[in-house]
């Protein structure tokens, strides 16, 4: 692998505004070590090349300045961050009707096996997955059905379980559920009601006949025979039985079905609506849909009066659910920037990422994640917690060419024992496709990708100093981010409102169609946009190696200072947004310069 930053590249680096760093008090002195202060200013060089489209022809090809990907590069892996799937748990297998038959034993005892239970559907967040594209292709996932029981008391096999593996950061929402057991329970209650009414009528007729006999009118028998009763209602559970196919019509007429035993599902079906935020790897799969119970074989119904039951029960039908999955990548830092600003180059400079880089807009079409390794994989503690004030100067930042990553390390003799909390060993960065002005109107690639930085602890706005007014660029980026935050808050409120609506009763009252709104606290009235604007943020002013960028940086720095001092409003115009310590850090990602500052500054913000 070529070195991250070739020694020759320093020759091309006239300066990175050394005088401006003094105000960045958070930054350790050691962190400044990779900067090569220069005595000449590029502005003085009088170069008028300030367009972002300037090709980096004079910079040697390296890991940070890779040759452009071929136009027919099909190596881009598929990525999906949204999926709608239907899951169908396995139904239970039917119970078996069978009798032992042996030589000299034509009519042996009942020996039908029970049906197998249906398979369950689980979900699990795992490290190895990073996209939902597999699920978007499958759409319907079914667990295995339980097998029917067999003669000779052999139970049916259990249906196979399905485990849906999703990336960490997936949010699962239930949209619709059809649980046949709930419907069956409602029908059962209605059928029982009818049965009770019928039993009452019979009892009343019996009492009238009894009374007539007692008064000596002798009409009791006649009355009993002439009772004008409706046809007896069907057994409430009749549909749950499988009948012996060889049953004679006489046997069918005299068949009296028993009450079914109360059976609990093997695994408790989670209450609706399911809402999971899988923000950490799940140690065990989480149950989404429980399989149906297997039916009972005919030996379960043997009694003194019924030695040869000619029926068994059917397996339970299983739950079907529609789920919406949304992947919101969980990175510690989110890069937000205009297209071609240099985000992916910066990600390469900070991590071992192989993100695509190209001198045109929308090179990145899907999020890239990189990990900044801080402990050289040796578990050495490295960074003091922020509460101790300014970052310790005892840390040094080096570019580890062998690891290809930036490593921040502390001298072993300076490791202090008993430090709490445990120092961070790595952090992750999400690089998303560029945002353009009007992205909220679906211009460019839209603002949907912002969901991958929505949950980041820190936002880093990557601004190309050679592409015109940096302050304007920052403002327009924040406008898009602010609009996105409001849109998300609106969506969240709508979802919450719809979850509060409950149909009255258990469904028996559906005629009235009355809605009840649960007695919950009032919903917030207006979206504030604070969800994102309250996050700590800073600006990474990149391509600082290009000539004529210092003035632009100066203006940006002034603007950032004004925000910190309260002279300027937060660029998103959101009230109470984070304006504590707004800085702009100039870097030259292509030369790997300034990236150590980003690491230190980020660590400071993350540990806050
Ligand atoms: N001179 C110079 N060029 C840079 C620097 N950083 C990036 N570039 C160049 O800028 C161009 C765009 O870089 P990318 O990293 O692909 O930009 P991006 O922001 O990821 O672009 P999109 O993915 O399209 O949003 C490439 O030609 C890089 O070589 C830098 O610090 N200095
Ligand atoms: Mg990119």
Explained architecture:
This protein is of the alpha/beta class. It has 3 domains: 9-66 and 329-371 and 429-506 and 532-606, 3-Layer(aba) Sandwich (Rossmann fold), CATH 3.40.50.300; 82-179 and 237-327, GTP1/OBG domain (Spo0b-associated Gtp-binding Protein, Chain: A), CATH 2.70.210.12; 186-225. Helices cover 22% and strands 17% of the residues. It is built from 11 helices and 20 strands. The strands form 6 sheets. It has a 6-stranded mixed beta sheet with strand order 12-15-11-16-19-20, sandwiched between helices. A 5-stranded mixed beta sheet has the order 3-1-10-5-7. A 3-stranded mixed beta sheet has the order 4-2-8, with no helix packed on it. Helix 10 (550-565) links the parallel strand 19 and strand 20 (584-586). The radius of gyration is 36 Å and the shape is elongated. Guanosine-5'-triphosphate binds at residues 56, 65, 337, 339-345, 357-359, 361-364, 433-434, 542-543, 545-546, 588-590.
What characteristics describe this protein?
22% helix; Spo0b-associated Gtp-binding Protein, Chain: A; disordered N terminus; 17% strand; 608 residues; single chain; binds guanosine-5'-triphosphate; alpha/beta; 20 strands; binds magnesium ion; GTP1_OBG_dom_sf; six-stranded mixed beta sheet; 11 helices; Rossmann fold; five-stranded mixed beta sheet
Distance between the ends: 36 Å
CATH topology of the largest domain: Rossmann fold
**Heterogens:** guanosine-5'-triphosphate, magnesium ion
Number of DSSP E strands? 20
Name of the CATH superfamily of the largest domain: P-loop containing nucleotide triphosphate hydrolases
How many strands, which pairing sense, and closed or not: the largest β-sheet?
6 strands, mixed
Structural class comes to alpha/beta
Cα-atom radius of gyration: 36 Å
- Strand order within the widest sheet? 12-15-11-16-19-20
Helix-residue proportion: 10-25%
Number of domain units: 3
> How would you state the average pLDDT, rounded?
78
CATH C-level label of the largest domain: Alpha Beta
**Which of globular, elongated, flat, extended, rod-shaped describes the shape?**
elongated
- Our count of helices gives 11
CATH architecture of the largest domain: 3-Layer(aba) Sandwich
Unreliable runs, pLDDT <50, ≥5 residues? 1-14, 25-52, 384-419, 503-518
Note the beta-strand portion. 15-25%
